[in-house]
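Quick one: structure tokens for this chain, please?
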Amino acid sequence: MFLLFAQPAVTFATELEDLHLKIVPRTAAEAARIDAVTTPTHDFSKAQKFEERSGGAATVRAMSDSNAFSQASDNISFEDELNFKLGNALFRKLWVSSPSSTLASDGLGPLYNARSCQRCHIKDGRGHPPENADDNAISMFLRISIPAPDAEAMHEIEGYIATLPDPTYGSQMQDLAVQGHPAEYRLDINYEEEVITLADGTEISLRHPTYRAANLGYGDLHPQAMLSPRVTPQMIGLGLLEAIPAADILANADPEDRDGDGISGRPNIVWSHVHDQPMLGRFGLKAGNPSILEQSAAAFSGDIGISSSLHPAGAGDCTAAQSDCQSATHGDADDRVFEIDDIGLDLVTFYSSNLAVPARRKVNDPQVLRGKEIFYTTGCIACHTPSFVTHRLEDQPEQSFQLIWPYTDMLLHNMGPDLADNRPEARASGQEWRTPPLWGIGMTEQVSGHTYFLHDGRARSLLEAVLWHGGEAQAQRDAVIDLPTADRDALIAYLESL
């Protein structure tokens, strides 16, 4: 992981320092090879060399059942496979409320969104919005914050947009609670349909969602509360994304759009609790966390109400206004000190880092190759960068020096008003989102049992997801609308092969 230094009111410097990855520097010859192998192709007559192995040597065979996203890196050692399984056990573990005789598992809530990581990241895949009145929102929640005064600005990070938690409901709204405590809310969603007519006459209906925090358990929201709906993203390939050199990510940033292509990706810079420094954001829908460890610890606290050394509050996201929650019995009064200790948190982080990317399918199918050509030539790769080579790492062989194909630049892009949540996060504005990785996207229905996409699951198909693109991606969206039927079908076939 790398540190990006910044000074107040000064443009970010490009100096980078290694913080926790044990990196072997690249030679000049390696850098030249990497540049050659990651330069986008112009030959669409056949698949590129190693393109089928999306996660490099860590890639696993594509299974045909719902466990396709739950396999360990193919190049993991026998000894580390045991650590992977221990991490999986903690990822699936059902936490219970305090006090409990099961000391190793108590500490749930008191307010929470799920009792385990797996309950949200079902089969390590994508979450979904409630499908009907009887369906719950266990893999979807609302983030919440309010604008902060200038005095709260983080001057170490240029362009940081200061926010504060809602004084009553904190940073995340929890729709479940342990016995004796009211939940914070119920998520209500209403959709309005809009019909889009494509150039060939095909009609596609897009659903515009409206979100409401109903049945508020602790009084009104702050008048300036900003709500952001989030569904859980898939878990595969996270360790490989963490191993991409920060310099390679920053090299694709073009905040002033100096090349005039309409694409102006920006890095999110966030505060690292581990290193007490600003760092490049990589994880979360707005790149709000710098590492898998910090993303995991934040999820334990916000989603399940489990304390750790990074988030020591036994009450999780409960605020001072929720006095009963603050004074409740918590699960951190034993030898663990925190409800999940550092060993457990490291095991979950290791598990999350080594969930393998399945191999691609049909890479040499003529229709898929035509779809790839369309994806490249319409400019989709301006954000969905096809490939990177990871750092050479001394102690992480699974992620070390791998040619990977994640189809993301890991940068923030303005996606227009229709996709905006109007809630900033660090340097990300209310219209910006991190480019999501596309690897494995064609296996969503197989793994998760649905085809809901985007940050809030509003898109019911890959085509709908494309048609929601706006802002920097408006030109690509319009190009897809104008495609002949055969070319549009080929584009979708290519996406489904990823």
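Confidence is low (pLDDT under 50) at residues 1-18.
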